[in-house]
Design brief:
The complex is a heterotetramer, with two copies of chain A (270 residues) and two copies of chain B (247 residues).
Chain A (H helix, E strand, L loop, with lengths): L2 E2 L2 H6 L6 E5 L5 H9 L5 E6 L4 H8 L3 E6 L11 H9 L3 E4 L2 H13 L3 E4 L7 H4 L4 E4 L7 E6 L5 E10 L4 E2 L4 H9 L2 E10 L7 H5 L1 E2 L6 E4 L17 H10 L3 H18 L1
Parallel strand pairs in A: 1-13, 2-3, 2-9, 3-4, 4-5, 9-11, 11-13
Antiparallel strand pairs in A: 6-8, 7-8, 9-10, 10-12
Helix pairs in contact in A: 3-4, 5-7
Chain B lengths: L1 H17 L5 E4 L4 H16 L6 E4 L14 H7 L5 E4 L3 E3 L4 E2 L19 H7 L2 E5 L8 E2 L20 E5 L3 E6 L4 E7 L5 H7 L18 H18 L1 H9 L2
Helix pairs in contact in B: 1-2, 2-6, 6-7
The chains are: A alpha/beta (270), B alpha/beta (247).
């Protein structure tokens, strides 16, 4: 059953070498700071299906051993400087992907099958750099070549959401890829803005937007836990802060200065 | 400022023309010009009593018809329910292949870009993919991309999707899928076809006389500066503000 | 875009020989009556993943040419008499399945791939009677034998739900297999208790339980449209009526008498 | 009526024992005895301070932890998140295979049953599948089923799931997966091991002395007749009513 723990306890339970799945909406920047504080290292990051400042911070902090992603970008603020530098330096294992392939790999894990077929992709050089992807003749149904990708089973899925209830049910709204991460992962850790007393599963309408506690191992409260990224229905992104990061992180020293400020800022909130 | 506004209005008008006849167009995040083109088409179709146009803007709350998470755009495209989409590229080559990964040898790219996103998939599945890249230079339009994020043509598999046109700051090209290459359709006012030739690193077909890309007419400008900018402001407030301030 | 039509117009738009996907929760008994009134025949019924009185009525009325299902049962009221009789008589093509295989076939259509892998099933005689299912060696990921099933693309998906809004968005709550049917199908027809003026996509909570109008071709209003079956949040099943059906439908004559009463009853409601 | 209640109470108590140690049990629709057994286990675990037991009852609003539609039970089992499930069968054979389809030649069965439901899948994936069939007769327990809806053992594939025990009105059997057959564990009061032998169409292992299935003790009966029946009444009002009326 779901445990309600402190942010520190949540972060401390991710071991070096483990794979960590993170989303693009509902990013737990609070847990990211806590992971860095806890000295996370050699993590295998799985971006579902892309990432931005969260991945760049973890990379810059030296926490990443391998990364699987369809893209790392700061959006309006431009390229991800620590990612780009680390790629040029060959600082970690790089598994370039394409969005639906990451989602298909997670679905294979959700379904308990070793692989998942996926439309498109043929002709892409991704097939050259991903020898774990294969092109096969469809064994049944309409004949034709189909790409298949292996299951992705993250050790831990980690995200941030507006609310949990006391039982550990999480309100995710339409962001069903958050549920997909949890179904596929061995364990799921969630940070939330707040814990509510009502049962989120109570009505058909509210239950429709809920990840059941069955899939949730740990919950920690982290107010403004996505900052400076946005959280739906709660707060917009702090674009100026992301731009400030983009500018400072261009150099290693600038990144260090930003990171130290970011960690103490997050400590103040917590 | 006024020149910049005119440049954008021309592009928006071309985009609306390229989308003519579609029912559902999806637009990536941070793509104000494609989004404005789609909104212009929607407004026009409504005025002319044509079938309604649906616009999905990724990451937008207002223009979000999806309720099944990140996979739904991709599923929707696979089901044939997305008629048009926009892709860019750090490099685009004469065969229509695009590179969103980086230059030089993989994986330690000389210049690294964000990554392939959903391009490898959507290029196969969306009938009308419009390549939109404002910078028109030989470093973008190369003979052969260093990394194929998404391939334009793949005779070895059945596909409904692929490139339809390429729109830049200088010109508009059509893509011929049987031949697997571009043909210059028109050059934007202020540029010549030899400007285009000199700034394009790949070969393409060119008609004996190259027309100028038409400017938006008065009725279009009225729609664009009024209703379309108001609608755009919900999703792209900064862009819409610049456009209105330039007026 | 979604058309709002009469029940008769909705039923008239299902052509003989078409495949029709129907659910187990959110059954449109109103449209079933309208289909029978319209003289539906040679339909290929796809039960998602099982059916009961709806399938049995269509079978008894001679509307079914082929049926794909994991089970047909009247639940507490026992076996489905017209189904059982028709199977013994070989009255239609029978494609026996198992629940997750039907859901996997629909998912393949949703994803635009020709097939879908599925866990389990090996050793079942279903593999003998379903030559379209294959056992393959997994082409990637963990090695092992895996069953694959072909895509199922229904011509029409048909179900009943509490509410549609004016744009054709449908409130389905947690019953996501209804969305799955619609994603997979070429066209989707929905009957509803009522059409509401508010936008069902308005809030994150309400949107989470909505099938978007993008997938909905026709909507018809049919009050108590699932009767005598239940509709969540609206009314319980009329178990006495189902039991009366089970008893009458044991004979061909009894079935005829029941059907005639059922059709006039439904006409009165409409 | 009192005898019928005792019979049911014995079965519910056996079910609770078979489920001991599990975290999540799923129960099919219209399965009041398995559901009551699961509720008895849950109540006991709570009283004894053991880890909580989660019960999913298909089709129930109250006991529904799922929000992803009809596939979720199957996905959940595939993920190893369902520890126990119940299956029945029109026929069950000595190898543990079950038939939910019909007798005689397929497809024109002599007797047709509803169909395989999810059995072909869940038998592979749920570690503790309890075969529950009240009728104990040679027409149910056959040497070889006419149609294998779900196979008990399949050495050709890795699987975590399969039969764990078989519970009937007369007896309780264990299933030995390495051998692929049943062993009589106990016979319910009122029957002898030779009654069981004569009513079972397949062969099974029998210990030299066959114990009687234990009756529920006083504390269990109190729980069962109180809290468990109150909880059960939410999902199975008719069943709970009969049980209470018999008291």
């Amino acid at each position: 059953m779901t445990e309600i723990v402190s942010l520190e306890a949540l972060a401390a339970d991710v071991a070096p070498g483990q794979s960590l799945a993170v989303p693009v909406v509902g990013v737990s920047m609070a847990a990211t700071a806590a992971l860095i504080e806890a000295g996370a290292r050699d993590m295998r990051l799985i971006c579902v299906p892309v990432s931005g400042m969260q991945a760049d911070l973890l990379i810059g902090a030296g926490a990443i051993g391998e990364i699987e992603t369809s893209a790392i970008s700061l959006g309006e603020a431009g390229g991800a400087p620590r990612f780009n530098a680390a790629v040029r330096a060959g600082a970690f294992g790089l598994r370039d992907s394409t969005c639906p392939a990451i989602l298909a790999g997670l679905l294979a894990a959700q379904r308990g099958v070793p692989f998942m077929p996926i439309a498109g992709i043929v002709g892409s050089d991704l097939l050259q750099v991903r020898p774990d992807w294969k092109v096969i003749d469809s064994p049944t149904g309409e004949p034709g070549k189909v790409v298949v990708v292996p299951a992705i089973t993250p050790d831990v899925a980690l995200f941030h959401a507006p609310e949990a209830d006391r039982a550990g049910n999480i309100r995710i709204g339409r962001h069903r890829e958050l549920a997909g991460m949890a179904y596929a992962a061995r364990r799921t850790f969630v940070t939330v803005e707040r814990i509510v007393d009502r049962n989120l599963m109570e009505t058909e309408d509210s239950a429709a937007g809920v990840l059941p506690s069955l899939y949730v191992d740990k919950v920690a409260v982290a107010p403004r836990g996505a900052w400076p990224l946005p959280l739906w229905d709660e707060y917009p992104g702090d674009d100026a802060e992301v731009a400030r990061y983009a500018s400072m992180a261009r150099s290693e020293e600038g990144f260090r200065a930003y990171l130290s400020g970011f960690l103490s800022q997050r400590r103040k909130v917590a | 400022m006024a020149a910049e506004r005119e440049r954008r209005e021309l592009l928006i008008n071309v985009v609306a023309g390229l989308l003519d006849g579609i029912r559902h167009v999806a637009v990536g995040a941070s793509s104000p010009i494609p989004a404005a083109g789609a909104m212009l088409l929607r407004a026009r179709s409504e005025l002319e009593g044509k079938p309604p146009v649906r616009i999905s803007i990724l990451g937008s709350q207002e223009h979000n018809f999806f309720t099944n998470g990140a996979i739904e755009l991709f599923d929707c495209a696979a089901q044939g329910r997305v008629d048009a989409f926009f892709l860019g590229g750090g490099q685009i080559d004469g065969a229509g292949n695009i590179n969103l990964v980086g230059t030089g040898a993989y994986p330690k790219s000389d210049v690294r870009w964000p990554g392939s996103f959903g391009s490898a998939y959507l290029y196969h599945l969306v009938p009308r993919v419009i390549l939109f890249r404002e910078e028109h230079s030989p470093r973008v339009f190369v003979p052969k991309v260093d990394f194929v994020s998404a391939a334009a043509t793949t005779p070895e598999v059945k596909r409904r999707g692929g490139p339809y046109a390429l729109l830049t700051n200088m010109a508009l090209f059509d893509f011929d899928r049987s031949r697997g290459g571009f043909a210059l359709r028109s050059v934007h006012p202020g540029y010549s076809s030899s400007d285009v030739r000199s700034q394009t690193g790949f070969d393409y077909v060119e008609p004996p006389v190259v027309p100028a890309t038409p400017l938006p007419d008065a009725q279009t400008l009225e729609l664009l500066r009024g209703r379309v900018m108001r609608e755009l402001a919900e999703t792209y407030p900064a862009f819409a503000r610049t456009m209105l301030q330039a007026a």
